[in-house]
Amino acid sequence: MAELVDIEVELVALGVVRFPQAVVRVELDNNLLHELPTIQIEQAPGGHDDGLRLSRPLVDFNVYAPTRSAAFSLAHEVHAWVTGELRGLGTSRLVIGRTGALSLPAVRPYENTSLRRVGATYEIYCHPAT
Questions:
Q1: pLDDT at position 1 over 60
Q2: DSSP per-residue letters across 43-82
Q3: How distant is the alpha carbon of residue 13 from its chain centre?
Q4: 72, CA 20 to 30 Å: which among 9, 52, 53, 103?
Q5: Contact partners, residue 11, CB within 8 Å, separation at least 6
Q6: CA-CA distances (angstroms) from residue 71 to 2, 97, 121, 127?
Q7: Direct distance between the N- and C-terminal alpha carbons of the chain, in angstroms, rounded to an integer
Q8: Radius of gyration for the alpha carbons in the chain, expressed in angstroms and rounded
Q9: What is the pLDDT of residues 42-78, one digit of tens each?
Q10: Is 128 helix (H, G, I), strand (E, B) or coil?
Q11: Other CB atoms within 10 A of residue 110 CB
Q12: SS3 label, residue 90
């Protein structure tokens, strides 16, 4: 049986290094307006694994920023990172293979009008490092 690695934790660890200008996290908190820009990484329902080693989680990346243009700008940086730079990277627990966008960065409604959210969904093929 395939070992399931917490893709959110691994991507946050990589994202903190890649995006020092942003807060990279899994969960949002009540202080969000004071922590912009924020990149939220969440595994979405779906994906699959081969029962041996390879898994393909679906991952949502949501960017929160004070303006629409700032949110899109950072979302495009995240897109380039996921679809280009992440391939072949790894951590002590995970190796990332092929990546691809299932939905491109687009505005996602958010109830707080003091900020803007732009998000995209990606598939990330990966396997445990061991």
A1: no
A2: EEEEEEE-SSS-EEEEEEEEEEESSHHHHHHHHHHHHHII
A3: 11
A4: 9
A5: 41, 59, 124
A6: 36, 27, 15, 31
A7: 14
A8: 15
A9: 999 888 888 778 889 999 999 999 999 999 999 999 9
A10: strand
A11: 16
A12: strand
